[in-house]
Amino acid sequence: MDESADAVSANAETLEGFHEVNLASPTTPDLQVGDEDLLQPHPGPFSLELFLCCSLPTQPVYSTPRHSHNGSVPGLEAESAEGKEDGEVCSALSDSLSRLRSPSVMEVREKGYERLKEELMKAQKEAHKMVREANIKQATAEKQLKEALGKIDVLQAEVQALKTLVLSSPTSPVADLPSAVGGGVKTPFKKGHSRNKSTSSAILGTQPDPSATQPIVRECREVDSQLFSEFKVWKEEPTLERSCSFLDRVYREDIYPCLAFNKSELGSAILEAVEQNTLSVEPVGFQPLPVVKASAVECGGPKKCALSGQTKTCKHRIKFGDSSSYYYVSPFCRYRITAVCNFFTYIRYIHQGLVKQQDAEQMFWEVTQLRREMSVAKLGYFKDQL
């Protein structure tokens, strides 16, 4: 027994560093049992001599079973594999960074930046150019719209004036007076008080009626074939040139004589302004005049006509285009100028195609009426505004 105890104690010294385990439970360590309990023999057929050191476990026992893999640990292998992969990734990233930082890549990148910058600047310039062109087009369109609206207003005013002129001009002949039954003439009805003929005849005696002996005169008209043919040729292709036969006749017979003033140069300037539609005629107020310069003597004044040179009361003055010089004209000269202006206004409407509701004969009589006004004005007849 003493030898067995010595062997056990010797074996116990050699097992330092190992956990004390319960032999009854080989998978879990028995931490509740003391050392004396482990070394006490159990009753039964088990003999202490059979308890040898070779029967003790040489490795610590854990709560979970361990499996041998030829001396390798799976967790360590996985961690080593992951570490190897991370190292490869890091090396790849470092290689990529080194390549990106290489001079050739930096040069390519700088060139790309410069190219991108140039493209952006080019796109901005194109955008600014398009915006500027759009603004210019918009401004031009607005200006053209304003001009068109102004022209429309002027044309409407001219059409209205033409309608008034056409309605006011006597283009139709005077209506025939009704004749009395039996070939006699019926005396027109006279308003007002009339005395009894029987009483007056008894006192004054029988006298013949003056209206019964005087013939009745009515205004008649007839189309001149030559003048009408010239007008129809001009109407087919209206023009404002003096070379056509129709306007050449009107210039010779009516326009030149109507604008023949003592100041011939001023009369020629008036005709040129009327042809270009730049002559302005406006009334004059009777306000005191400023100091008259030497160059303004030819323009006349409120008491002197610039066309005739005579001392007349001038109620109107004329101006050429945008000039600041005014010429005072007498009522007689002003009527002659307006007669020519009315003729040019009407033929200008025909040239522009604004007169469409009348046939050729009606238009011819309207032109003839305007020529008649010029002829009457050049002879000295005029209408003055009171």
Distance between the termini: 172 Å
Order of helices and strands: HHHHHHHHHEEEHH
Form type: elongated
Helical fraction equals 40-55%
Give me the side-by-side strand order of the main sheet. Answer: 1-2-3
DSSP summary: helix tally: 11
Briefly note the structural class of the backbone. mainly alpha
Radius of gyration: 65 Å
GO molecular function: guanyl-nucleotide exchange factor activity
Family: Belongs to the SEC2 family.
Organism: Nothobranchius furzeri (Turquoise killifish)
Coiled coil: 106-165
Short description:
By secondary structure, the protein is mainly α.
Key structural traits:
386 residues; mainly alpha
Characterise the protein shown here.
It is a single chain. The protein is mainly alpha-helical. Helix content is 53%, strand content 3%. It has helices at residues 2-14, 35-39, 74-100, 103-168, 197-204, 210-213, 225-236, 245-258, 264-276, 331-352, 360-378; strands spanning 279-283, 316-320, 327-329. The protein has a 3-stranded antiparallel beta sheet. β2 and β3 form a beta hairpin. Mean pLDDT is 72; it is low at 15-19, 45-51, 67-72, 170-204 and 286-297.
